[in-house]
Queue: 2 jobs
Job 1
Amino acid sequence: MTAGDMTKVATTNGTTPSAPAKGANKAGAIANWADERLGLGTTMKKNLRKVFPDHWSFMLGEIALWSFVVVLLTGVFLTLWFDPSMTEVHYDGSYDPLRGVEMSSAMASTLDISFDVRGGLLMRQMHHWAAHIFIASMMIHMLRVYLTGAFRKPRELNWVIGCLLLLLGTIEGFTGYSLPDDLLSGTGVRAADGFMKASPVVGTYMSFFLFGGEFPGDAIIPRFYVMHILLIPGILLALIVAHMLLLVYHKHTQWAGPGRTEQNVVGYPMLPVYAAKAGGFFFIVFGTIALLGGLFSLNPVWKYGPYDPSKVTAGSQPDWYMGWPDGLLRIIPAWETHIFGINFSWNVMLPILVAPPLLLMVLIALPFLEAWITGDKREHHLLQRPRDVPTRTAIMVALMTFYGLSWAAGGNDIIAIKMHLSINQITYFLRGAVFIGPVIAFMITRRWCISLQRHDEGKLLHGYESGVLVRSPDGGYAEKHLPLAEGTAYTLTARDRDLTPETVEEIEASGLAGRQVRLRKLRAKLQEKFYSDNVQKPTAEELHDAQHHAEHELHELESQIENGPNRHGPTPGH
Amino acid sequence: MSDAHNNDDHGGELEPVEPIADPGLPEHTWRPTDVDPAKEKRAERQVAGFFGLSAICTFLFLVAYFTLDIGDNWHVIAGFGASTMALGASLGFALLFIGVGIIHWARKLMADHEMVEMRHSARSADEDRETTLQALNDGLEESGIGRRPLIRNSLLGATGLLGLPAIVLLRDLGPLPGDKLEHTIWGQGTKDKPMRIVRDGIWTPILASDLEIGDLVNAQPDALKNPERYGIDPIEVEGIPLQVHKSKASLVLLRMNPDDITPGKDAKGNSRENWDVEGIVAYSKICTHVGCPISLNERTTHHLLCPCHQSTFDLADSGKVVFGPAGRPLPQLPISVDAEGYLVAQSDFDEPVGPTYWERDYYDRW
């Protein structure tokens, strides 16, 4: 560990050195007291100055972490007043449009929090905003980790934990927004009842057990409440701790660059810079959520009114993160099979009971699938640019396209109204688009990445475009290319060459037989496809030759400028 | 796989030399605050200034909390409540200024020299692995678990059985479904007192002449308001039981030209030609897809659209699905009029209402 040159750094935050304060001895005494009981000296020895690399994209996970903390804090506040009971009461609080209306205690206490507890509505809205931000930042963080290859060995398990966090966050969100027992959320719970009933064999039993009888019963809100404030947050918290411990153990990944290698990590120490930046960022996230909660209303349950199974509002939609399965539920054709007096409700099972778990399993499998295809068993700590692994990038963009189109389908009624389109046509279009769209996106992304790789190679070999056009004596135009700075050029070359797939002869010569050989052949074929058309970084020789050539061209252009009509400034002789 | 070698699984061929040698970390450059005491002092004042602003905002928060009323002032400022806005803004800025101050402090005044830390491989050292493996083997050996399959297997079996109480204990979460999903309160009408159809919300009975062609009325069974009339204990239609009844019995009435109606068949295969009253048909309001109340009426086509997932049903044709994901037609309630001319149900639905479930039977009505 090098401490670096600190001679000029402000050590005191003041102009004159401060004398050791009286408190120093006291602090020492406390530290000693603690160490003699907890052995902090040893555990903190390395961690206090642990190095964290800096990049804006490393902040996305931090947003998720801090918004979770805000969710916990505001959630505890809400529990002090919220009454998770479905007992019917007559509302008599301050919100006069609903006064005297019969509703559940859950809804009435939600209204009380909103209109009779000072700061209650603020906390409710902060809680909901923070939940949105928690899930959104987890998703974007996941994209960052995937697209930069940060999930590779040794971090695969942390990727799996991340996927589970996303799943739990989503369930937590659903149970949370169902608690107020308002008309919108009640409609969502009713749909969830339909999902359960569609489950094969045990569907009705699941529904009757969860609801404590026939829908809506009086059990669902208290049961969701326990899941929402105890069960799921407990698991979330445990997984977040595991996620962070693994992060500390593996040390953070970093971008390649001068001095930044697979063997080291370059950045700022935890104490003081990183602690200050991360700690300060907590206040930024917290403050932003407070502003959102105070200034931007969301989920105005007082406008929806209490739940009534005979009522619904047009444009009923779940919160956005539940939108994509809801979209699939909207566009799936009316497939049901009736046979021997029983039903297979494909129209509910496929979009709700099959698609989301399937997508989750695909996400969890991605690191293992890629490692199997590439055969890469090395540890990786340097991040990759998305363009440098076109197939991987294209896979994620295809998944994102599927997600995005399904999500859009979840708003097909809103799209139809706002854009004056036929809802039938939108639905028919999306039925095809959710399958074709990802394929097109995959192909475009892959070629786009490869073209960006070629651009990088061009810059490396021939220099960057300077924007200076030169006209030659015979009238042709050429652009002056200048060599890249050493650091930039190094960064472009600081990546691995693709591994070479096994050849069929190699596999056959290995002495294996049957299924194993077929598997290895399949793997070799997939690996070939995975890497095909990738641009490898040049060898030292190629680079040298190309640079030599570029230098030569540059000289030629410069001598043309010297002699020809491109001369700048006043013509000699005037 | 044997991980003895980490980085050369695919060795063999020699990697070509790196095209450009690592130039090493760039030279550190000093910030203005490192070299200019005046700028350093200024940054210090700025940081303290941010903290000061935060304190002011916190003070404003307290002022807002104690001065701005909530209660029936909830609509002040764009229907939003002055209190919520003031509390949110002051709390938000109080937090943001602390964050901005700390980060400004870190960027301007704390050491900004990057440090280098060496990584370690995630795997443990060979020596540690051997020691751990040895300890594990010793432990297992001393327990004799490998040598005594009788103990091992009986333990596994007994512990596995303990899963059963865990499942059985959940049995009382709810009652068994029985045939509850197959009946609604519409079936509680009798020959003398057939169940009247009343308007949802105002609970008044409906004369056939009240509806014009194209009119849609949301309706409920009269028993929910007048249980005694049908010999039902009032407790059965209050609070939660009321919600349960509504979630199955809710109805839509639609009047159309009687000539538009194509009567389908009922469960016994008879025609439904007497199920309407002068073109007034009654259908379950609960969508057969996942159970949303259907409410959007296309007046000119006698189509009814569910706002949740857009399943569309044709009420002139036995509730046939004409669009969307629902797999079954809407259940129809056979209606007639009683002695006083009010609309009543002839009987219960002849099939379960609401979303499809596994053991739900089906009959073809065309």
Note: Residues 224 and 238 of chain B are 8 Å apart (CA to CA).
Job 2
Amino acid sequence: MDPIKESLRSFILAEYLLGESPANLTDQTPLRTSGILDSMATLGLVSFVEKTFGVMLDAHETGIDNFDRIEDIAALVARKKLGQ
Amino acid sequence: MRKSDNLCDYLARSAAAVPDHPAVVDPTGQVLTYRQLDELSDRVAGYLVDRGVVPGDRVGVIAPKSASVVATLFGVMKAGAAYVPADYSAPASRNQTLLNDCAVKAMFLHAECAAIASDWPSANLPEVVWFDATGQDAVPGGIGVPWTEVAGHAPLQGDRLADSKGLAYILYTSGSTGIPKGVVLTHENATSFVDWCSDEFAPTGTDRFSSHAPFHFDLSVLDLYLSLKHGATLYLVSESVGKAPQELAAFIAGHHLTVWYSTPSILSLLAQFGSLEKHDCSSLRTVFFAGEVFPVKHLRNIVERWPQATFFNLYGPTETNVCTFAKIPQVIPADRTEPYPIGFVCPRCEAMVLDAPGGAEVTRGEEGLLHIAGDSLFQGYWKKSEGLFFERNGRRWYNTGDVVCETPDVGFVYRGRLDRMVKRRGYRIELAEIERGLYQNERIREAAVIAVPDVAAGVRIIAHLAPEGSDRPSIIELKAFCNRNLPSYMSPDVFVFVDALPRTSTDKIDYQRLSQTQRAQQTQEKL
């Protein structure tokens, strides 16, 4: 189990999907294009990622390309941590 | 300056006084000077009139903000017609409902909103359709004409302006039956508000105004007309920048904006996520906020960040426009948690606090319903104006539905609403409209939506759902469903499944019991 992915999954389930079965939120579930996260929720997730993993994200890194699925976000965090 | 009769008079006077000054800067960087805006809107008016639009007609405008949209709003009014702006990101079916409701003669659509025309549900498709796109190739399915054709049309000859009592625009808000209601507003309704703003806030031609609110939101009336009346420059904020705090802070700093107007939600986001220490916004001299209660914690943050600016809380439903206002002190005490009052009645309005709709005045200081009279009071809802007003002391009065109490030193203090209308991110939401959306899902048997106060978000929307059969949809499916069928600000925060909704003795859904259960659960979570 990837701790970054699990941490993202728990946060999203607790904050935005209260009552959802954890199995339904996979690493590939689209978060923003599906409507799970709106623009406000996305800001909350960006803030969570920055605080939890100690990385700083630029506005261009939080577009749909890098920031729509748990898999992509975890990969982005891993890249950022490697670069530090 | 003489009182204006028609909103187009503001543009005409500024175009004569400062023809080469920039009037509008759109999100792509396109600049229209006053002369260009005046000429372009003459061409839009000419096109509409030649295509059969007559005074009193309604014209739908569904597109992201741009220079061509601003020219269109004025073009529609120059043709003697009224504009009906709507949210271009809302589902096509919702926009069709409201355009159908007021029977628009023509509509201006963003190319991505073509489904509104191509899937028009009834036989009476508006006769005139044009698109915010250049070249015939960009017009989807050959339904209408591109912007270039309209912008190249011969300008309107002669004066078709409505008089001050004529219809200027219709703004749709969430209706109590779940069907949006069109707030009908005349030129006088708008100019009395704008002229008051001139007296109170004294803008000048060197000001640079933000235009953050979309045009279907009543905050846009101040942005557009106060700015253009005074020959100032209006900077249109795109929807994507409008929701991205860092980009928004850079926008304010980069354009040296002097006047800002938005909901408290946006200012809170700027204070929290805008990295304001990195962006020099010292050009701001006036900051207006309206639309919802501003949590003091966030207000204090932004006031401390922008100490050179004066902050004003403007209050008023779309039906009355701004009717009370309060100046926020330069220093907000560290221990204050209570939101600031909505303040004193604007001199062009009158207010009464009554114990019931149209009832007796309460003793000063007691809670009651705020009733408003004045020149900015709307004419009624489109086709639904019975029983909205009552006469007293020779004036026409409207019950705002807001509970307030009056204090001698700070004016009116807002207490809340009696009915089920809530404000979220500045949008007014009737909970019944969310229910109506949820009921469209075939796996949902019953839906009841409540709103509960929330420290962080202001309000949390909770949907109680009884599923059809034993198999319930997943939360992810429901979120995706709402995303397709409701504007994003209406999407519930929490979904709760129940076997059946609680009912009162008269077989109505028992909302009080749902709220009580929710409060009990919140208390338990805190323990």
Note: DSSP finds three helices and no strands in chain A.
